[in-house]
Design brief:
alpha+beta; elongated; Helix Hairpins; about 50% helix
């Protein structure tokens, strides 16, 4: 009788509840993600990711400052786009595309986010800001040579140590042009006042490379300076290396009057224009930077009543569809489970099967249940047959022993040596059956103990042959061994002699006089193959699948005394399996049989 399951514990109800919860959570999560994603997109378009945008601008400005064109910038743009998750596009000032992370044909935003012009915009000196002036990374002809840099680094090291001796902690910073500058964290060391010991003037002296670039700059600025009356023997352009970047200044040897300050500002403008013209061949052309999809003025995303109604309606529809689908699926799922439950509650002796109606997990479960029932039915039949066979095996010697003891007790037979020998033989038969059953029980329980050690297979065959030599001679059967090399096994020698001994005993019983039983061993790849071959009566092909079954005998009329207990071959199979090997039988009626043991080979001990 099927037990009544409470409603809250029924699988169908639990599936429905789970599906409703999943649907509610999915709808809520989807709505929340939609709101958050839309809000984030709007914030990004409003400029809420300014730091990220400035990093992109700084990277691209750095490329423009150090390259004469935009070749090779595509990889940088792809890397920045992948890291920020945004579209990045560079165009010329007339909107011709230089590179774009978006697919070809995608329209550009209406306005550029920034202009990339390292000759007029400095994104390097102050992180996260755009300052007017030349980007310090544009060094052009002012880049010092390797020899000059090595000399300047030695001078900078000497000045740093000199400052340290005078109580000032300084560091050496290398400018983009390769010139080292001695400074501290707050600016010039000692507020710009250099101790006399350290004021050698060598470190800040322009190198030949810088002198050449400055001479060219003077020539470029000469015309503009002459127009302002500031060109003369006491006026010159010098390199500024007192800060962490390279700069230029217009200097005059004479005292500057108050009225001259405006002229000097014009002169500085002349020098700046000349310097930009000098550096222009070393930088990439001016480009426009486009980020994302443009700018909007939206604020925090908020759903309107109409949108809310749409979300609620969609959520209700999702819930209804989810419940309906779950009900159908759960019903189809529960039906075979109920059939399985009813079949499992039937008496075991009925061995009930269930119909397999699907090919999904429940169908697989039903098939497994049917296979289990069939296997249980076969095991039950085997158990009954085994009990019958064991009873028969034990009854025969016990009946003989009991009968002879009773007639001896009644004085009908004298207990002479022949009678005692017969009783002793019956006891040995009984003991052999019991020992075989004990070995099989240990193998079935997984408690069969093995004491492994390196064993030479050819010596193992010689030992087995020596143990059965007398029996072979008595039966008139030739027993011989052959070995191909000296293969080694990692095995229990006692158990292996027992397995081979059972095969040899079986072969001797079924081999007529003048026959031959051969034990052979050979190496086959990673395995060692042991063969026991006889020239006996052989086994019918229909009987070969059953030779390793317990209590099975090809000749049902054979005596238990001469035919054995029917447990020898099953014991061989278990012993070989315990050694991670296999055993097979092949036979041809009238020509003999071959039993082959295949075991893992072992390395020879050193």
């Amino acid at each position: 009788m099927t037990a009544r399951i409470p409603l809250r514990k029924r699988l169908l109800v639990r599936l429905l509840i789970a599906s409703v919860l999943i649907a509610v959570c999915s709808v809520a999560a989807t709505a929340w993600l939609a709101v958050e994603t839309t809000t984030r997109a709007l914030r990004e378009e409003q400029g809420q990711v300014l730091a990220e945008d400035m990093d992109v601008l700084a990277r691209l400005s750095g490329h423009a400052a150090t390259h004469a064109d935009w070749k090779g910038v595509e990889e940088t743009v792809r890397e920045l786009s992948a890291r920020t998750g945004r579209r990045i596009a560079l165009t010329t000032t007339d909107r011709r595309t230089i590179t774009d992370s978006a697919p070809r044909g995608t329209s550009l935003p209406p306005r550029a986010a920034a202009t990339v012009d390292p000759l007029h915009i400095d994104t390097y000196t102050e992180r996260g800001a755009q300052r007017g002036g030349v980007d310090p990374r544009v060094v052009g002809p002012y880049r010092v040579t390797d020899q000059e840099r090595a000399r300047l680094e030695k001078l900078a090291d000497l000045r740093q140590r000199c400052f340290a001796r005078n109580g000032y902690e300084a560091t050496v910073v290398q400018t983009p042009s390769g010139r080292p500058v001695v400074t501290d964290h707050d600016g010039p060391v000692a507020g710009g006042v250099v101790p006399d010991e350290c004021a050698d003037g060598l470190l800040n002296t322009p190198t030949p490379t810088e002198e050449e670039a400055l001479s060219d700059l003077n020539e470029r600025a000469r015309g503009c300076l002459e127009r302002h009356g500031l060109s003369g023997s006491d006026a010159f352009v010098a390199v500024d290396v007192t800060e962490k970047q390279l700069g230029t200044r217009y200097l005059m040897g004479k005292t500057v009057r108050a009225g001259d300050r405006a002229a000097l500002r014009e002169a500085d403008r002349c020098v700046d224009e000349a310097r930009r013209a000098q550096l222009d061949p070393y930088v990439a052309p001016v480009a426009e930077l486009y980020l994302g999809g443009g700018e909007t003025s939206a604020v925090r995303f908020d759903m309107s009543p109409a949108n809310k109604a749409k979300v609620v309606g969609a959520a209700g529809l999702v819930l209804a569809v989810t419940v309906a689908v779950t009900a159908v699926v759960a019903t189809r799922l529960v039906r075979p489970l109920r059939a399985l439950t009813e079949a499992a509650q039937q008496p075991p002796e009925l061995h009930v099967r269930v119909p397999v109606t699907t090919r999904d997990e429940t169908g697989i479960l039903a098939s497994a249940f049917n296979e289990l029932s069939e296997r249980r039915e076969r095991l039950e039949a085997q158990r009954k047959a085994m009990v019958s066979d064991v009873a028969h095996e034990l009854r025969t010697p016990l009946t003989n022993i009991r009968g002879w003891l009773e007639v001896t007790r009644d004085g009908l037979v004298d207990p002479d040596p022949a009678l005692l020998a017969s009783l002793h033989e019956e006891a040995l038969v009984l003991q052999r059956v019991i020992d075989d059953l004990q070995d099989l029980a240990a193998a079935d329980a997984g408690t069969l103990r093995l004491h492994r050690e390196p064993v030479r297979a050819d010596e193992l065959l010689d030992q087995v042959a020596a143990a059965h030599r007398v029996a072979a001679d008595t039966a008139g059967v030739t027993l011989r061994t052959t070995a191909d090399g000296t293969p080694w096994l990692d095995a229990d020698p006692v158990r292996m002699r027992q397995a081979l001994g059972n095969l040899v005993s079986n072969a001797l019983r079924h081999t007529p006089a003048d026959g031959t039983v051969t034990l052979a061993v050979r190496r086959d790849g990673d395995d060692v193959v042991l063969d026991v071959t006889d020239t006996g009566t052989g086994i019918d092909p229909a009987d070969l699948p059953y030779v390793f079954d317990r209590f099975w005998r090809a000749e049902k009329s054979r005596s238990r005394r001469t035919g054995g207990s029917g447990l020898g071959l099953p014991i061989v199979r278990h012993l070989v399996a315990a050694h991670d090997g296999t055993v097979e039988a092949a036979s041809e009626p009238g020509a003999g049989s071959v039993f082959t043991l295949r075991l893992p080979a072992a390395a020879a001990p050193e």
